[in-house]
Amino acid sequence: MAIIIFLDSPVCSGFSYARDPKGCDVTDYLSSLQVQRFLNKWFTDHPQYLSNPFYLGGDSFSIKDISLNRYIEGKEECRILMMFLLFCVNAIYFQGYLIGNPITDPKFDNNFQVQGAHGFGIISDQIYEAAMKNCKGNYVNPANQLCAEVLETVDSVRFMCWHFFRELMLFSTWANEHPFCYSSFLKSQMHTSCTKNTYDYYLAYFWMNNKMTREALEIKGGTVGEWVRCKKELPYTQDMPSSIPYHLNPTTRGYRALVYSGDHDLQVPQLSTQAWIRSLNFSIADDWRAWHLDGQAAGFTITYANKLTFATVKGGGHTAPEYQSEECFAMAQRWLDNKPL
User: Fold this and answer.
1) CATH of domain 21-105+241-336
2) Per its UniProt record, what InterPro entries does this chain match (predicted)?
3) Is 9 a catalytic residue?
């Protein structure tokens, strides 16, 4: 279906590294520049792939690295199609991008968490009505004490619901047979402040730190010691408050875009993603409808006249492919093949 380049970004996450520790200290913009340099060098080393249709993709926070548009001046006719990612027009056959459960703008992402929690039945009508009355639509920066208190209540209820759900997911049959090992692993990972600790990540930790895995991936010796999924201690600075403006130019210039959301995601509710897409004021080409897999509804989708498609993935959390991999694979395959979902 595709040749995929997986990139650990920002630098010093995963197996990526910097020779100078100061190289790990990056921002949204600097991280995007690093991705730009990596891709330019990769295509220089692998020119046989230049004629292939090229797409950029990512989930959650990686939208910051693949946000869009902007021009620069230079000796060649080159354009930055993905937020400071430099592509020569006549070199890379760029076709579009796909992003899932995208962290885009707190004014949208965070502001719809209350509505999302109410829609899922996590908070009561009384709590929701108190939030509407005291916060007056602003659930990001509480303007008064009553708003702050009700938002604290919402967060506590959401956390209890999340914790209960994760506990159900954690204890697979194997984990129940090895409770001491599994609980010890979870405790050892708590310093990372990961939002999710599941059995999948338990296995991933050992697989990624296996000598055979490192050899297969050709990880340079002496660069990265222990692989951990989350590195919250990285000195990363967020200096791009919103990536919404960077979706406008490429989509209006004819590049394709697929934006998808797990419909059970409370971190970035699909309501918020729909809202910022609507704020772009694109006309509708194919209105809201269900899309199917194996005779079952797999989600809902809507397509806009400028080749932007939005889709939900039924039962998907943050991020959708972690929960509904088969559905996400079918969705991506159809979209890359230019077929209706």
Assistant:
1) 3.40.50.11320
2) AB_hydrolase_fold, Peptidase_S10, Ser_caboxypep_his_AS
3) no
